[in-house]
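Lab channel / #folding
Pinned by the channel admin:
"Please post every new chain as: sequence first, then the structure tokens as a reply. Keep commentary short and put observations after the output so the thread stays searchable."

First post following the new format, from NK:
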Amino acid sequence: MMLAAVAMVMAAGCGKKGSEPDLPEGTGPVAGQWHLIEWSSLSDDRADIYISFGEDGTFDLYQRLYTQYYEHYDGNYIQDGATVSGTYSDGTPWGSSYTAVFTEDRSRMTLTPDGNGTAAVYEASDIPEEILSGSLSGTKSGIDGPDGYRFL
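Reply from TO:
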């Protein structure tokens, strides 16, 4: 019986890696590539957002907001439990910190801004190569829409 008890304790310990922090249910690391699928102000096809969070604490944001071109922003982020915050590479902080919550299968992530704001729902998705390559990017001069507006 003692051997069976030891085996059960060892089996229970194998399901969890020792380096993973204890996070509330529905949370976890944001690392991965994500595509915005739901946000109240982006209810039409005039906007499209992709974001990649690296395991090394870097992010890349590809956004098309009310223009025909994608803009690329990058920088660093910090995740503390379910809270994610960041700074763009030019030193500009994100407009808010966000609480990240995931579906059980991690296919969707919801980022809810701290304070007053609308939650954004992302779906796990590879960023298309034509966006990564910059072939769909434009210059800020001559583009209609908010000049330099950053989604995060």
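NK: Residues 26-132 form a domain with the Lipocalin fold (CATH 2.40.128.270).
TO: also worth noting, The mean pLDDT is 78.
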